[in-house]
Specification:
This protein is mainly alpha-helical. The protein contains 6 helices and 2 strands. Strands 1-2 form a two-stranded antiparallel ribbon. α1 runs antiparallel to α4 and α2 packs antiparallel against α3.
């Protein structure tokens, strides 16, 4: 189980950091190699995790956790199908890949704290424009923002006697 925790954390870190290579290569070659190596490392790790789960090496995971991991892995493989490098993914695909890897990581950890600390990203329109922006944060931060927005919308629109 600890091995998969390490692999999942490494996968998420490599996705977020772009899997940097040593500086011995020229910058263009370094960037190209890091994007290719990063995606190949992610796919190799996910394929190994899939083989181990299929072989019954679940180490105390529930059937629900295993099913959620398989579902997220299908999403990883679908998003990366036909791609050999991370820079071939669109921004939406990168967000989708990152979220799927974070879900896998959280299930491998298998704790509520792991779920709350799971990094998620989402695309939303910036107010007053047609520009899409990517926002990232923990699951707990996203839940707080959602609840804050809901509370704002549920407030009375007319303040009556109590206006300051």
């Amino acid at each position: 189980m600890k091995r998969w925790l390490w692999l999942a954390v490494l996968t998420a870190a490599m996705t977020a950091a772009g899997a940097q290579e040593p500086a011995a290569q020229p910058p263009a070659a370094q960037q190209s190699a890091s994007h290719e190596d990063g995606l190949q490392t992610i796919l190799t790790q996910q394929q190994q995790l899939q083989r181990d789960l299929d072989a019954g090496k679940t180490n105390g995971m529930t059937a629900r956790q295993v099913n959620l991991i398989h579902k997220s892995q299908r999403e990883v493989f679908a998003v990366t199908q036909g791609k050999t490098r991370l820079d071939q993914l669109s921004m939406d695909e990168k967000v989708q890949l990152e979220n799927a890897l974070e879900r896998i990581n959280a299930e491998v950890k298998g704790t509520r704290a792991g779920q709350d600390n799971k990094q998620v990203c989402w695309r939303e329109k910036q107010t007053g424009t047609t520009v899409n922006v990517t926002r990232c944060g923990t699951e707990a931060e996203m839940r707080e923002a959602r609840e804050g927005a809901r509370d704002f919308l549920e407030r009375p629109k007319v303040c009556g006697d109590r206006c300051g």
